[in-house]
Amino acid sequence: MILAPVGFVGAGKVGCSLARYLQQDPMLGRPGFFSRSAEHAREAAEFCEGFAYDSVAGLVRDSRFIFLTVPDGAIRELAEGLAACSVDLTGKIVVHCSGATSSDALTACREAGAHIASMHPLYAVSSRFECWRELGHAWFSLEGDDEAVCLLEAILDRLGNRHARIDAADKVRYHAAAVMASNLVVGLYHEAASQLAACGLSQDDAEAALASLFLGNAEHISHDGCAAALTGPAARGDTRTIEVHLSCLSGDDRQIYQLLTNVLYRIAAQR
Q1: What pLDDT shows up at residue 2?
Q2: Which residue has the higher pLDDT, 3 or 207?
């Protein structure tokens, strides 16, 4: 078996989690790490039983797959730095893991001979050393050069992940969708808990009280789809109850309720 060495530039939450998860693919070798923080690189290498590098050129030289797991704003400059370093990029696969940025940010590496792509997990990575266990449930979006995307698809297939190709021009809309389903839900949950707290519960108790309702609904949506999961006054066409709800709300809370209820009407109409 010929192993493909994998290198990560960036040893934060995404770099550590993805590296540890990809180790389950028997076709990939032990990962290498380079980070501006030598301590982070050493920690990641220890966690993944890989290697810490003291130069990005050394990492690139030894790796066939090079993942840039750095903040979005650093991707293009880093790609230009890789292209300008002393290492030949011909035939290497350079990948970034941003949700909102397309593979075009890696153009300098393509011009230097590499195949480029973006690979983004639809999962909120919140921990360096724990979230890798959940990546088996994540969808991945892919776009970029066909040579790179096909190899990434093969890796994800071996790991059992579902994945989809999208156009580079759609990356911003794709990421907005991810934020709606993840970050904005946190805001909506917080507002719901605040309304419950106004009924006399503490904020902590209100958040805990809503948990079973929220988790049960999320499970239903994920298994059966939005239309089948929809319940409540909008699903029943109970405009009187909706009007009463609106009468006790004001400001942003009233606007949020009204806007999302309009969406629910459209979902209900599909049924």
Answers
A1: 57
A2: 207
pLDDT in tens, 149-186: 999 999 999 999 999 999 999 999 999 999 999 999 99
Return d(Cα 24, Cα 20) in angstroms, integer. Answer: 8
How many Cα atoms are found within 13 Å in the side-chain-facing hemisphere of 93?
24
CA-atom Rg of the chain in angstroms: 22
Number of residues assigned to the chain: 271
pTM score, two decimals? 0.90
CB neighbour list of residue 95: distance below 8 Å, 6 or more residues apart: 65, 66, 67, 68, 116, 117, 118, 119, 144, 148, 152
Taking only the tens place, the pLDDT of each residue in 196-248 is 999 999 999 999 999 999 999 999 999 999 999 999 999 999 999 999 999 99
The DSSP output letter for 46 is H
Residue 129 main-chain phi, psi, to 5 deg: -120, 5
Q: Which residue has the tokens 């009924």?
A: 199
- Nearest in space to 174 (alpha carbons), one of 249, 98, 237: 98
Looking at residue 12, its amino acid is G
**Does residue 34 sit in helix, strand or coil?**
strand
Q: Tokens at residue 242, please?
A: 């909706």
User: Six-digit token pair at 214?
Assistant: 């929220």
Helix (H) or strand (E) holding 57, with range, is helix 56-62
Question: Can you tell me the distance from the alpha carbon of 130 to that of 236, in angstroms, rounded to the nearest whole number?
Answer: 42
34 and 55 Cβ atoms separated by less than 8 Å: yes
Q: Of 131, 136, 126, 184, which Cα lies nearest the Cα of 158? A: 136
* First-residue to last-residue Cα distance in the chain: 52
**Is the model's pLDDT at 99 over the cut of 90?**
yes
